[in-house]
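Interim report, section 4.2 (structural modelling).
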Amino acid sequence: MNDLLEKVRWGNVRAIARVISLVENSKAAAQTAVSGLFPYTGQAHVVGITGPPGCGKSTLVNELAKQFVLEEQRVAIIAVDPSSPFSGGALLGDRARMMDLTGQQGIFIRSMASRGSLGGLARATSAAIKIFDAADYGIILVETVGAGQAEVDIANAAHTTLVVEAPGMGDDLQSIKAGILEIADVLVVNKSDRPGALRTVKALEMMLHMGQPDQTHHHGYLTKIEPATHADAQEKWQVEVLQTVAIEGKGLSELAQLVKAHRSYLMASGEWEEREKNRSRRELEQLLQDRFLARIQETVSEVEREHLVTAVTRREVDPYTAVDRLFTQIEKRSA
Amino acid sequence: MNDLLEKVRWGNVRAIARVISLVENSKAAAQTAVSGLFPYTGQAHVVGITGPPGCGKSTLVNELAKQFVLEEQRVAIIAVDPSSPFSGGALLGDRARMMDLTGQQGIFIRSMASRGSLGGLARATSAAIKIFDAADYGIILVETVGAGQAEVDIANAAHTTLVVEAPGMGDDLQSIKAGILEIADVLVVNKSDRPGALRTVKALEMMLHMGQPDQTHHHGYLTKIEPATHADAQEKWQVEVLQTVAIEGKGLSELAQLVKAHRSYLMASGEWEEREKNRSRRELEQLLQDRFLARIQETVSEVEREHLVTAVTRREVDPYTAVDRLFTQIEKRSA
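Predicted structure of the assembly:
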């Protein structure tokens, strides 16, 4: 493994692919890789891209990557698919987009699907980000699909978050969720050659100017609510709505510029460090949960666990009392 | 509280609303309510409804509720919004749909938004289901938006899961996620008066007949992989694709029949009990996590936690080592 990690640091693409696979399949490998590479991380600009299915996100991400390559940057794309914990996910789609990038120097694309647990996916994605970071990829584009926790996780993992919509999708109130707008550093209306694009832009802009977000970003157990000190400074970041037609490359150069401008803003305002802290906090929370999970499996046998589940199902004991018992048991045996 | 719970059991709507509010705001209240009402639960048919924004889900749920009322059933609607942990969510939309149900006897609608943590929302939703169950609501419709973990959670909380799509939304591979199809007991193509409806139906049917799902539904720490014994029996449930135009009430009577047929199937096949067990398991997992979270907050001060976060951010210590330390500390102090 040490040999592999050395090669990762030298940017060897086969070593990178190999270590990511190891990390996906084993917690121990994730621990070794992250511990070993951690001192060499912290340089990459992590950009999260999220939006509903059908908004053309993958094409947009591919095109954005090409923009950065034009500027001699090395770009990693991590396509995270949290919505298919069951089977393989959008494999066909993956192949098409990889074809599109064939022969593109400097772009490394990797897709990661949930293999049963969202926690496992989060751990592997977070490790993959560090691997690319240590391998000196200056920009890491992390793409995810869907609404909900996935978006929030991406906002917590990224320095810059792009939220992508398409014309017609963002017009009803239901789909323009305040929560999604509030994680956005840049809003993109892709497929802007379609009818209704301008209406979507206007709707998003209206939403942007409605109401102030409250400061309760995330209540994890390591989370402190950060007062918006930097945000109060004279130059707060203004979220813009940008139109693109990714499939024709339109608006992509502007988008790349905005992403770079956001990085500069983060650095100048001190928010970069704040976001780094948030990323660390989230990661510690996830790892703590992993540890707790492992502890339960060590201390309470599957038979005992199933017995309790059955008792609750039969209404012999209520879930709170059951958990009290289980928790006491875990603590006794750990002591 | 005991007085309130007594009133809940008698179906007093004001008591129900009050207890749900208490449960949303305090863990202690959730514990008291669930423990007190638990022996009186287990009768309700919990139906999960999920689908992307814009598919007309809320109208469909309202109309489905009306169908059951026609059959003299009391129906509860819980509209869960996991996608807006930041601000208020789709309040305007809520008001419109509540207006629609004004004067409808026998339907109780309640919306629940995340107030910062997904864990809190899951706990409150699960408690609300029990409250309605104990208050003798025969059908509980739990509606959620978005793709990802929310769907999986709903499938775990429900006896029957409806996945709703709209024409044009489900045509590209990206949006018809295998994972979503595999949680569906019934697939609904709503807005079927729109162009392309039949194409969407065909696409979904094709997906349904492609590939067998593997059995790894969920890898929580209390989870056992259930072999599909009942599913192997002669009469496996056939997932159907049903067309509706909810806004005109079209197809709703058929949908209500299918939902009832699924309940009968679950009962006859023994799957009802299996799903009840899965629900209990999930709930125990969530409550265990809550307990663990509380234990961390008790044993490690915020200052200590922040110190560790800062050390990781500065790359002085890697996250795995940091978690090792934290975990040891928690166990020592708990002992």
